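S2.1 Query sequence (Mu-like prophage protein gpG)
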Amino acid sequence: MAGVLIEIKTDENSVLMALLKKLSDFEDRKRGLFEDIGSTVTENIRERWTRGEGLNGRWPLSVRVMREGGTTLRKTSRLMNSITYNATDNGLEIGTDAEYGAIHHFGGVIDMPARTRTLYFRQDGRTGLVGNRFVRQSRSNFAQDVQAKAYKVNMPERPWLGITDDDAQDIVNLVEGTILDE
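Output C-alpha cells follow.
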C-alpha cells in the first residue's frame, strides 16, 4: 500500500471499544435524547420568558406594560404556554401554534383597516342627556356607530425562539450523557 497508514489496535476492554459499543446502540436511544433536548430547551425558553428576556437579553417594554404594568408578552401567557416540542426519530421541532408568535419574534407592521365600531353609553331617562363614559353593552341604553380610521401598529422584534449559549451547553451535556450512558 502506497501512502501513509495508521493502524489502531485495541483489545475488547479498551475505552475506545467501550465507547464504540455504546455508539452502536445510539440509534435505539436517539428519540429519547431528542425528547430530553426538547423538554430542556422548552423549559429554558419559558424561564427566560418569565424574566422578560429573549435571545438578545431583556426585551424593550411594550406600550401595554408602560401603561398598565405587568410583563412584556405576558398579558395572558397564552403564547408562552403554547411553546411545545415534537421529537421524532430523526430530529426535533420546537415552536408554537399561536398565529401571532411570528410577529412577536420577528417584529413587523400590522395594518389595521378602517372599520365601524359601536360605542355604548348610558342616557339619563329624565333629562335625555347622554353620559360621556363608555359602558358595557349590557348596561347601555344608548348606542352610537362611529367610523374608526385605518392605522398601523409597529411591533418591535422580540426574539424568543432559539437556542442560547446556555441552551447549547445543556444540549451538549445531554448528548454526552446519552452517549456515555451517564
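Helices lie at 15-24, 26-50, 63-68, 78-81, 101-106, 165-179. The two ends are 42 Å apart (CA to CA).
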